[in-house]
Amino acid sequence: MSLKTLDNSLELLNYFSKETPSWGVRELAKEMGISHSIVYRTLASFEKYGFLEQDPKTKRYELGLRFLEFGQMVKEKMRLSEHVYPIMKRLAGKVEESIFLTWLDKSDGVTVEIAESTHRIKYEVSLGTRTPLYVGASCKVIMAYLSKEKQLEITREGMKAFTKNTILDEEILLSDLDEIKKKGWCYSVGEFSDAVFGLGVPLFNSQNEIIASLTISGPEYRVEEMDFEVALTHLLQEAKEIQGYLNHFSSHYK
């Protein structure tokens, strides 16, 4: 296999997302701008090894269980459930909202652990959800600690509006990121999902490089019922404990 073939194959996988979880051969070939025969062979190879599955009725392809196995392997290596989830659950009990651990992956934040609120009405996101770094507290608090060059790279790749509150002006966004970094936390409302608030703080590796964030999130209408300063204090306290584990983890798995 040539490097170009490998690049095309891996690029193909990136088209499978929460917004477009399944693709037909010709549809994907048109989207990628390459021959449908090449796309078919690539999809068939991924299906052979369990990375993709084809619906027998629609003939469309979607991600296979092999990715779930790999994801579980990574999660077990990090031992998030054993060390981090109990802290997140404790924080969820204190603030009575859902807690999210978001991991930096290139220009996105990926939800890798969730401790849900006990409220019947709550903000729900699936594990593995991928979100651009320029939107929402959990991601913007990560982006704020990236280099200015990386921030500009992200903004100039193109930004899209998820809600009417999504910041699309580069100058305003960069100013917002500077302010977030000065404060050490980020608060947002309705930037990624309407009527949802987020309060996030950064998490670093042992080299003090940004790698993740810890975020309280829930329906906007409950913010008035929440003591913001107390919630932020709890968030910072529990993030400090998680930070201790991440320092240990990252020093052993560089």
From TrEMBL:
Limits of the IclR-ED domain: 66-248
InterPro entries linked to this entry: GAF-like_dom_sf (IPR029016), HTH_MetabolicPath_Reg (IPR050707), Tscrpt_reg_IclR_C (IPR014757), Tscrpt_reg_IclR_N (IPR005471), WH-like_DNA-bd_sf (IPR036388), WH_DNA-bd_sf (IPR036390)
Keyword Secreted: no
Sorted UniProt keywords: DNA-binding, Transcription, Transcription regulation
Gene3D superfamilies assigned: 3.30.450.40, Winged helix-like DNA-binding domain superfamily/Winged helix DNA-binding domain
Keyword Transcription regulation: yes
Segments forming domain HTH iclR-type: 3-65
Name of the molecule in the record: IclR family transcriptional regulator
Source organism (scientific name): Heyndrickxia vini
